[in-house]
């Protein structure tokens, strides 16, 4: 039998750079409460959110994703032509084909890079990171551009006061490349397909049957997600740390999906994080940007000096599916 030749493999992969873009319109809790029956205090106490960012009409998932990616590319020192693949994690690209990745590749001049979208809901960036790591280690790519981007304001149901105040718009990007040292730990990931109805986007026929709707809207059973996150997700976060053969005390930073500060606090307690670990609270003035929340938070913490290059960070995403994915990474 003739053997198939495979490509030479790389030992490891690592994050080389990040970039981000936030929707430019600040929507405070006060403004939110002109749209829904609530109070700024209730929203802040229940979620930690004081304000969120909504994109303007001219800020699209393509433009925000491109801006974040361009910054990451500049900071990496690479040429666009060196990117072998682009993965875009999103649930906000409303044209099933071509992919958003293909549009962003064109904007960036990525030439013939492999380009595809990944629907991992709020775990999409961590799913994509795991995929990029595997692609590099098996020799399918040398450099992968990973983007998480959402425009959730378009899909927010302002008639549902129990979720409308959560969602926000933005993009985060990272360049992942080959490395001699491990820079991305084993992913702990999975899904709970018995919980499909817990968070869902309407399908297009339902949305388009209503003349008042431009986009499908998000529906979520907040309490059920909250309970699942506090138990299962907390356990998976601990597993991701153990799989990297480190202890929580070895971490410098904890950057979970920015869904609710109370979930972040419970998971941090479950992990028994010492005070030396900086916990990300980007949600406070950013809200929840689903697949974009983890890379936006990583980028901001690095830019503000709340985290440093070389730090060990635990990242974990969780959301519709229900899906989860987390890993320990070394920050670029
Ligand atoms: N203002 C005032 N009162 C409100 C509001 C509001 N905006 N919304 C609900 N309430 C009331 C309810 O009517 C209820 O009153 P009752 O007890 O008299 O019936 C009470 O507040 C509690 O309502 P809950 O919905 O149970 O509120 P909860 O404390 O669970 O907070 C929230 C809701 C913030 C959505 C929370 O459940 C949550 O964060 N869940 C997890 C969401 C999440 O992690 N999603 C992740 C994936 S999805 C994604 O990221 C895209």
Outline the structure in words.
The chain has 332 residues and is α/β, with parallel strands linked by helices. Helices cover 30% and strands 24% of the residues. The chain has helices at 29-32, 40-47, 61-76, 100-108, 124-137, 204-208, 222-243, 261-270, 293-304, and strands spanning 12-22, 25-28, 51-54, 85-89, 114-118, 143-151, 169-179, 188-191, 199-201, 218-220, 253-256, 278-279, 312-319, 323-330. The chain has a five-stranded mixed β-sheet with strand order 1-7-6-4-5, sandwiched between helices. Strands 8-14-13-11-12 form a five-stranded mixed β-sheet, sandwiched between helices. It is globular, with a radius of gyration of 19 Å. The termini are far apart. Acetyl coenzyme *A is lined by residues 36, 38, 42, 46-47, 122, 161-163, 165, 199, 220, 222-223, 225-226, 229, 259-260, 263, 288, 290, 319. Residues 36, 38, 42, 46-47, 122, 161-163, 165, 199, 220, 222-223, 225-226, 229, 259-260, 263, 288, 290, 319 line the site of acetyl coenzyme *A (ACO).
Number of strands: 14
Task: Give the radius of gyration.
Answer: 19 Å
What structural class do the secondary elements suggest?
A: alpha/beta
N-to-C SSE string, H for helix and E for strand: EEHHEHEHEHEEEEHEHEHEHEE
Largest sheet: 5 strands, mixed
Mean pLDDT: 96
Shape: globular
Helix content: 25-40%
Major sheet: arrangement of strands: 1-7-6-4-5
Please report the number of helical segments.
9
Strand percentage = 15-25%
Bound molecules: acetyl coenzyme *A
Distance between the termini: 45 Å
Catalytic activity: malonyl-[ACP] + acetyl-CoA + H(+) = 3-oxobutanoyl-[ACP] + CO2 + CoA
Keywords: Acyltransferase, Cytoplasm, Fatty acid biosynthesis, Fatty acid metabolism, Lipid biosynthesis, Lipid metabolism, Multifunctional enzyme, Transferase
Pathway: Lipid metabolism; fatty acid biosynthesis
GO biological process, one term: secondary metabolite biosynthetic process
